[in-house]
Amino acid sequence: MRKTGLSVILTFTLYILFGQTNGRDSVRALDQVVVTASRTLRMQDSVPVPVTLITKKDIQRLGSRRLIDVLREQTGLVFTTDEHGSGLQMQGLDPDYTMILIDGQPLIGRLTGKLDLSRITVGNIERIEIIKGASSSLYGSEALAGVINIITTGAGTATKAELSARGGSYGTADLTANGNYAFANRKGGLQLLANYYRTDGYSLSSGQSGQTLPPFYSYTVQGKLKYVLNQRSSLQLSGRYAYRYQHTVYNFSGNDPEKDATAEHDVNFIGTWNYAFSSRWKSRLEYYLSLYNTDEKITQLNTGKENDTSFFRQALHRLEWQQDYTISRQLLFTGGIGGNLESVKATRYPGRQAMQSGYVYLQQQYNPGKRWNIIGGLRGDLHSVYGSLVSPKLALQYYPHPKLSVKASLGRGFKAPDFRQLYLTFTNPLVGYTVLGTEELKKGALMQMQEAGEITTIYPAAYQASADLKAERSWSYNAGAVFKPVSSLRIELNAFYNNVNNLIQSVPVAGKTNGWFVYSYVNVSKVYTEGVEFSGRWQLLRNLDWQWGYQLLYAKDRDIIDSIKAGTGNYGMITDPHTGSSRRAAPKDYIGLTQRSRHQLNTKIFYRYPDWGLTAGARANYFGKAGFADQNGNGYIDRYDQFAPSYCLLSFSLEKSLLKERLAIQLSVENAGNYTNALVAGQPGRQLFAGVRWNWDKKTINQSSIKDQ
Questions:
Q1: Would you call 178 helix, strand, or coil by DSSP?
Q2: What residues have CB less than 8 Å from 93, skipping those under 6 apart?
Q3: What is the number of alpha carbons within 13 Å of residue 613 lying toward its C-beta?
Q4: Closest CA to 535 of 104, 132, 19
C-alpha cells in the first residue's frame, strides 16, 4: 500500500514537471515581450538583466486599485514612509533612486525627493516592466536602483470597450471607462480612458491629529491617437491629465482646528513619429512635455483665517531622436541624442529656477551564437549644474543548456542634485529651523541671516556645503540564472550589489538664536546594499498558477562602519537602554539602514475552474522586522533600538465570469488578518471590496452573431 502511494505521488510529480501541461499557453504566460531593458522589443528571457513583468491579467487578478497596491506585492520592492513622504525602495535603495516612467517618459513632481505613486490609476495599464540595477546608461538621472516603466494601453486597430466599477472599505470607489475605436480602414486608432477614484482615508491611531491617509478624490483622463501615414511611417499622440484634491483636519491646540487642503494637477503629452528608412534602419523622433502643479492652503475652520498658502510649479520639456540599425541577425545598434529643459517655481524657491541638459547614448546588442547574448551601452550627459558624466553598462547572457541561462551585468548610475537641494529657502513657521539649498548658501543667504542677528554660530560644515554638489554615483552588479526545465516552470535567482558614493545628506551648518539650526546639503555618505532574490512561476496544471519570491537584503552606511571600527564619537559605544550599561561597539552591532527588512517573502496562487467561470486567488506577503528609530543615541540602528515588527498580510479574491467572459464580478479581501501597526507605513486594517467589469469587443460580438446564426 505504501509503495503504491509513493508511486502515485512520484508519477504525479513527474507529470507536472515534465508532462505536456498546456505548453503553448505556458510559454505565452511566462515569456513576454519587454522593451525597457534595451529600448527595443525583446522577449523577457532574452534580456541579460533582471526583469520583472506584470501583465494586465496579473493586475486584474490582484484586484488592485492604484499602482502602489500592485508594486508593493513584488519581490524586492518595499513601500516606505518617512517625514519626506512615501515611496518604493528597490534592492534596498531609497525611493529617490528609482526612475518611474509612463510609456517610456519620466514622471515629475518629486516635491521632497520621492514620487507619490498613489496618483496613478491602473485602469489602462497594459503591463509594468521593472528593471533592477543601474540603468543610467539608457535613462539618465534617478536610475541608480532601476527603472519602473508603466506602459499604458496603446491605440489599436480594433473597436472595443471596457467598463469597471469597484468599491469597498474606507469609502473607496473606483470607476473606469476604457475604449478603443478603429477608423480609416484600421489605419488609425483612438484609445480613451476616464477614471474616478475616492477614499475617506484611514487612521492607524485613534489619538492622532489628522489621518494617516487623508481623504482625497481624483480623476484621470488619457487619450492616444495613432495613425499609419504610409508603409514607412506612423504618428502617435498621447495626452494625460490627472487631478487630485486631498484634505485633512488637524487639531493641535484643541481650540480652533485647521484644514489642510492640497489640489494637484498632473499633465503629460507625448508626440512620436516613427519612420523606417528600410527594414534594417528605423528612426523615432519624440517630444515630451510634463507639467506638475500643486496648491496648498491651511485655514482655521472656525474663523476662516488663512494660516499658510504655498504652491509648486514644475515643467519638463524633452526632445529625443533614436536610431535603430540592424547590421545582421546577430548585431543591432541603438543610438540616440536628446535634450531636457526643466524649471521650477515654488513658494520655497527664490524666483524661477531652471536646468538644462543634453545627452547622447549608444548601445549594441550582439548575439555571436545561439548560446551568447551581449549588450553593451554608453551614455554621456552634459548638465548646466553638475557638469558632464559618462555612464557605461555591460550585460552578458550565456546558455550552457537550452533550459538554463546564466546572466551577469554591471552598470554605472547617477542621480543629479535636485531643485530642493540646490535652491530651497524654507523656515518652518511652527518649529523655527531653516533649510537652505547649496546655491542659496553660495549667494550669501547665511551671511544675511547672521547680519540680521539670527545666527549664533557658523559650523565648519557651512564651508563644505558652499561647494558645488556632485551627482551621486553608483556601481551596480547583478549575477544570476534562469532555469526553465519545462515551458510551464520558470525559476530565477539573482544576486546583487550596489555601491553608492557621494550621497547627498542634510547637515546643520549654523546655530540660530531661537535654539534651532540652519541646514544645508553636502556630499558625505557611502552606502552599499547587497542581497539575493529568488523568484519563480509555475503553471502546475492548465488552470493552476503559482508564483513566489524571496529577497535577502543587507543595507549599510560605510561611514558608520568605519567610525565604529575607529571608535570615534558616539559610534564607538553601544548602550543597553534597559540596564544603562555600555560597552565598546563592534561592526556586527550595526543592523543597517532604517526601514529595510532583512527578509521579504511573497507567494500567490490562482486557480480557474472554466466550467463554472470561477477564478480564485490567495496571496501572502511577509516582511521581516526593520529598524525604525535610534533610541540609545549612538547614531545608528543596533539591537537595542526600536524596530517595526515582522508581519504577514493575507489577501483573497474570487471572480465569476458571465456572458462568454464579457462580464466579470469580483469579490476580494485584503489584509484578511486585520494587521495594523503605527510603525508599518501605509497599511490599513482589513479591507473588503466588490467590483464588476464588462468587456465589449466588436470583432468578438460579430463572430458570436455569425455562430449563433
A1: strand
A2: 144, 145, 498, 500, 527, 529, 555
A3: 11
A4: 132
Residue 571: DSSP 8-state: G
Cell of 342: 526643466
Confidence of residue 208 (pLDDT cuts 50, 70, 90): low
Question: In Å, what is the CA distance from 66 to each residue of 124, 199, 463?
Answer: 11, 12, 45
| Alpha carbon distance 195, 356 (integer Å) | 34
User: Exposure of 90 by Cβ count < 10 A (0-12 exposed, 13-18 middle, 19+ buried)?
Assistant: buried
Q: Write out the E strands in 573-701.
A: 573-575, 582-584, 599-609, 614-623, 626-629, 642-644, 647-658, 663-670, 687-697
DSSP string, 66-110: BHHHHHTTSTTEEEEEETTEEEEEETTB-GGGEEEEETTEE----
302 CB-near residues (< 8 Å, 6+ apart): 256, 257
In whole angstroms, give the CA distance from residue 673 to residue 686: 7
Element (H, E) at 410: strand 404-415
Amino acid at 435: V
Please give the share of the chain, as a percent, with pLDDT higher than 70.
90
Cα 161 to Cα 192: distance, rounded to the nearest angstrom? 9
**Which 8-state DSSP code applies to residue 205?**
-
pTM equals 0.88
Stretch 664-680: mean pLDDT = 90
Tens of pLDDT along 18-30?
A: 444 443 344 344 5
Would you say 596 and 565 are in contact if contact means Cβ atoms under 8 Å apart?
Answer: no
380 membership: H or E segment, kind and range: strand 372-383
What separation in angstroms does the CA of 634 have from each of 509, 629, 662?
A: 21, 11, 61
Rounded CA-CA distance 249/208 in Å is 11
DSSP, res 591? -
> What is d(CA 65, CA 63) in angstroms, rounded to the nearest whole number?
7
Rg of the chain, C-alpha, whole Å: 27
Query: Which H helix or E strand runs over 286?
Result: strand 281-300
pLDDT at 304 over 90: no
Q: Are 296 and 260 in contact (CB under 8 A)?
A: yes
Q: Note whether 106 and 347 are within 8 A (CB).
A: no
Would you call 392 exposed, middle or buried from its count of C-beta atoms within 10 A (0-12, 13-18, 19+)?
middle
Length of the chain: 709
pLDDT, averaged across the chain: 86
CA 202/CA 408 separation, integer angstroms = 44
- 371-377 own/partner pairs: CB under 8 Å, 24+ apart: 371/398, 371/399, 371/400, 372/396, 372/397, 372/398, 372/399, 373/46, 373/48, 373/397, 373/398, 374/48, 375/38, 375/47, 375/48, 375/49, 377/137, 377/138
- Is residue 498 within 8 Å of 93, Cβ to Cβ? yes
Q: What is the pLDDT of residue 661?
A: 86
What is the mean predicted confidence (pLDDT) over 29-58? 80
Give the residue carrying C-alpha cell 525604525.
628
Three cell numbers written together for 122: 491602473
Banded model confidence at residue 82, pLDDT cuts 50, 70, 90: low
Q: What are the helix (H) ranges across 545-623?
A: 558-566
Q: Cβ–Cβ contacts within 10 Å for residue 96, how many?
A: 21
Alpha helices in 240-323 (DSSP H): none
Closest CA to 468 of 426, 502, 493: 502
How many Cβ atoms from other residues are within 10 Å of residue 1's Cβ? Answer: 5
The neighbouring-strand residues paired with 693 are: 164, 664
